[in-house]
UniProtKB/TrEMBL annotation:
The chain crosses the membrane at residues 27-46, 58-80, 112-131, 138-159, 171-191, 203-224, 230-247, 254-275, 345-367, 374-391. Keywords: Membrane, Transmembrane, Transmembrane helix. This is Uncharacterized protein. It comes from the Bacteria. It comes from Bradyrhizobium canariense.
Amino acid sequence: MSFAYFALIVCLVSASALDIAGAKFGVQLGMTATALGLFAAVFSARKADYEHYLRATVWGRWILIGIPLCIAAQLVPLWLSWAHPIWASSHDALAGLSLGPVTADLGLTLNALFQALAAISLLSVTIVVVRDRSRAELVLFVLSGVTAVSALTLDLRPFSSALATAVPSDLATTMAGLGVMLNIAVMQLAAERAETRHSVVRSVAIGLCGLGGALASAVAVFGLSGTNSAIAAAFGLVLMLLILVIRRIDLSPLAAGALSLAALVGAMIVLSFLFEKNAGPILLRLVADVGAETRAALERMLADTRWFGAGAGTFSAVGRIYQSDAGAALMAPSTAFAIFADTGWVGFSAALLAGMMALGRLFLGALQRGRDSFFPAAAAACLVFALVESFAGSGLLHPAAILCLSTIVGLGLSQSVTQSSRGTGH
């Protein structure tokens, strides 16, 4: 399992650092490391590892299988009435078979399929690898460090013109939002270490590192990002605070349920207010102003989107059909918009359901966990931020953010069911 652990760290650091730096091969390197880690985990896993994985994924194991299968189904030739209209046009012009896939671009959808497989594989490898508490701690440190460095690129942007052009602001914002939750978890880890008679000096050093990362991330997401991104991060912080209050006060299940329900109602009221502030399609209400011409093109794309979408990963290709300016590329205004355009109502609903199911599992795991509850609590908070941010920005479309979020969820799920800090790796 040691090699799988090493591959996990390499994947996180390489994919994130290279994606932030704008290198094109960062995704390939991360996917390669993920594949090697998956093979190592499969061949070195013991029965206890397998049982642990089954317990961690019992909430929705079908999702891990269903997502790549749905994307793969978009590549299968179907009757033209089910296929993308581009293939019907090709048939009318060139004749040939009366078949065509759902996707408008086979190559882009195939690439999206590989990325989905990499994300799911990384989540699975993480669940098995971080059974050992020391490994879970190091993965948390790496995640908090990577996200804090990403946030610093946004913090330093006013002082460096090179950073302003080199680092995508949507990616830096997303990583900063995740960094707030992760670095707060590092501070909680340091506090638990001090309470359990670990080295006070080391605990203080860890806590100060977490504080520095949390401050850098908070400045980036609350001070230098859009209002809706800041609200998304606030939702995550409120969830962490809710979990902490329920655990510290030691509320009964009935009282904890009532408090959680009240928090959920409050969150729904705030979200309703946010979505009702602006008019137009619901998927465009939280995004930044994109201009009247671009907005009109995006609305036409929404109106033309069918039940199964235009194919995963094809937004850039299909967007050329709707752009009015031949020299300007139509970019996805948000992650939710891109998912809907690529996979239609079916894929969008499935993605939203999967996120909500994972959130529920992490929330319950944080409340039921004895020690180290900050692992699932931070993962749940990151997932809340990601769900809201997906309607406000496109940062989660970057491979670095996808791989980091997969690792975060895997870490939270694994530690939700682990009941002992005793090492189990080998």
